[in-house]
Amino acid sequence: MKRYVKLILIGFMTGVLNGLFGAGGGTIIVPFMVFLLGIEDHKAHATAISIILPLTIFSSIIYIKSGIFNLPITLNVTLGSVVGGLLGASILNKVPIKYLRKIFGMIMIAASIRILLTK
């Protein structure tokens, strides 16, 4: 399959998951870029963050129009996210790939278990 077709399919799946669950950037894009496309982990993580911005803008417009948007929560979480994002982006290249994969995998597993155990 041509590389651009794979990229479009990855983007489509990411968009659908983001629209449905508010997730998809890291959970879909990073593993697919690393294991399906052979992109180096650090570049996959950085690229995923860049992809999330336009995806989030368009999803947010739909959520706001639908009335399922909470401005006070958004503003408070955004403050912490910006500070955390600056820290994370500044240390990304300093974390060896073997640790980056382990940390990412543990977060994915923990999130999966929490979702499965939630009623």
UniProtKB/TrEMBL annotation:
Coiled coil recorded as keyword: no
One GO term describing the cellular component: plasma membrane
Keyword hit for Nucleotide-binding: no
Annotated localization: Cell membrane; Membrane
UniProt topology in membrane: Multi-pass membrane protein
Keywords: Cell membrane, Membrane, Transmembrane, Transmembrane helix
One family name in Pfam for this protein: TauE
Main localization, broad class: membrane
Membrane-spanning segments: 7-38, 44-64, 71-93, 99-117
Family statement drawn from the similarity comment of this UniProt entry: Belongs to the 4-toluene sulfonate uptake permease (TSUP) (TC 2.A.102) family.
Name of the protein in question: Probable membrane transporter protein
Source organism (scientific name): Thermoanaerobacterium xylanolyticum (strain ATCC 49914 / DSM 7097 / LX-11)
Top-level taxonomy: Bacteria, Bacillati, Bacillota, Clostridia, Thermoanaerobacterales
